[in-house]
Amino acid sequence: MECLEKCSWATQNRDMGAVILEHIVKTYNQGKLIAVNDVSLKVNEGELFGLIGPDGAGKTSIFRILTTLLLADKGQASVAGLDVVKDYQKIREIVGYMPGRFSLYQDLTLKENLEFFATVFGTTVEENYVLIKEIYDQIKPFSSRRAGKLSGGMKQKLALCCAMIHKPKVLFLDEPTTGVDAVSRKEFWDILAKLKEQGITILVSTPYMDEATLCERIALIQEGRIMSVDRPERIIQAFPKKLYAARSADIYRLLTDFRKNKDVTSCFAFGDWLHITLIQDHADSEQKLMKYAEELGHPQCEVKQIKPGIEDSFINLMRERNVVPQSHLPES
Length: 332
Prior knowledge:
Residues 325-332 have low confidence and may be disordered. The chain has helices spanning 2-12, 59-66, 88-94, 110-120, 129-139, 152-164, 182-196, 232-237, 251-259, 285-295, 310-320, and strands at residues 19-28, 33-43, 48-52, 74-79, 82-83, 95-98, 170-174, 201-206, 217-222, 225-230, 243-247, 264-270, 273-278, 302-306. The protein is α/β, with parallel strands linked by helices. Strands 6-7-8-3-9-10 form a 6-stranded mixed beta sheet, with helices on both faces. A 4-stranded antiparallel beta sheet has the order 2-1-4-5, sandwiched between helices. The chain has a 4-stranded antiparallel beta sheet with strand order 12-13-11-14, covered by helices on one side.
């Protein structure tokens, strides 16, 4: 009976999305640790979708469930219309998975790794070379180098080639840009944009908020729960208050002083600036913040109104759920 229900559910959702999760729950340590908490989500076919959240938010558990490497405790999920439990063998044939930790064979050369994964999927490098050509050409001069000796950026590109060599319908990339330099990060996202043009559905997870705007739609996740799903610009537009930026010579004392102000709703450090929201906005709010800072011994304080970003929206959603520690210092 359970099998029939799952089969019926997968069939009904076949044309509704490339990836679907409904009320997925995953716990560890005999239920004491909730990694994924009632997550429902749909990714459209051909979409570049981002799962955005810090370490420990539940991103990897979700990816491992969708790639049939982990069983959920509750809920249902499908990939390309196939149920992740009933049709796990078929799913493994049509998805590409690039885990967060480099997992290729360190002692094999770049070329040997690629040939190995092509063989595992019953194909050859030559058969699908057009799919990876642009990526592989960048690392081809190092084809005889052992994978363990490659730089972070080259390991990243090799892992993507291996995940793409069998021409997957859906590509799962778990924090692919973590630990690589800024140039390699940009190159990688340029590659993803071109892969999307080939009609491949791409799910990418990242802790970097600045990468959220490179996706068509995103899901913001924290402590295993989805806080918001939408286009990045719409999430930013939904920011409920005016946002002010302030800085002075003593940024951390300024942070402490503003957090003591009864009119301040939130105040967090963003690099050299503080981002501030007020209980109530007024036409002269900037001047009032400046005057308050000067009265507390910040003579060179600068205050201005700014547009919020994804990170501001993320923190605001966390605050609404009472999960932001006061010591939170976002990455710039």
